UniProtKB/TrEMBL annotation:
InterPro entries: Homeodomain-like_sf, HTH_TetR, Tet_transcr_reg_TetR-rel_C_sf, TetR_C. Signal peptide: none annotated. The keyword Glycoprotein does not apply. It comes from Cytobacillus firmus. Residues 18-78 form the HTH tetR-type domain. This is TetR family transcriptional regulator. Residues 41-60 bind DNA.
Amino acid sequence: MNNPLNIPKKQKLTKKGQETRSRIIVAAAELMYEQGVARTTIEDVQNKAKISASQMYHYFKEKKELVQEVISYQTLRVIGTHKRYLSNLDSFEALYAWRDFIVNIQIKRNCEGGCPLGSLASELVEINSDAQQEIMSSFFEWEDSIKKGLRYMLNQGELNSDADPDKLALALLAALQGGLLLTQVRRDPTPIIIALDTMIEHIHSFKKI
C-alpha cells in the first residue's frame, strides 16, 4: 500500500517494510475503533493485516507500542480530514459547511462508532499515561486548528473585538465531542446537530455589525 496519510516511518526499513508496517497500523486502528483497544488482540491484528507472528514482532515488540502508533494514525486521519474545512474557515458559511460535514458523516455511519480519537481517549487516558499524553496533544492540535480559523475570522472582520477565539475554539471542540458521544449513544444525529448549531449561534452573536 502507499502511505496517503503520511504514517510515521521508521528508519532502516525497506519500501516493502514500510508498507507492511503501515498495513499493520491501519489494521490495528480499524479493529480498535470497531471493537475497542482492550478487546483487540495482537492475533486479531495479525489476521487482519495478513502477516505472521514473526513479522508482527519484527515491527512491534508489544501492544503498547502499536497503540501509540494507532493514536498518531487516527490523529492524522481525523484532523487531516477536518482541516479541509478548518483551513478555509473564513466566514460563517464556512463554519456551517464544516458543521454539515460532521453531521453528514454521522448520518452515513448511522451514528455508530463515535469519534476515533474520543473513543481512544475514553478507553485509555485513565490507564495509560503515555497514551493520555499523546491523546491530549492530539486534541490540542485539533483545538489549535479551530483557533486559527476563528482568529482568521476575527482578523478579517467577521467577528467583533469581544470575541475570544481561544475560548470559543475550546467550547466548540467540547460541544463537538459531547455531541458525538450522545449521538453515538442515542443512534440519533440530533445531539450533534443541536450542540454544533448552539455553539455556532453563540459565535454568531459576536458577528461584527
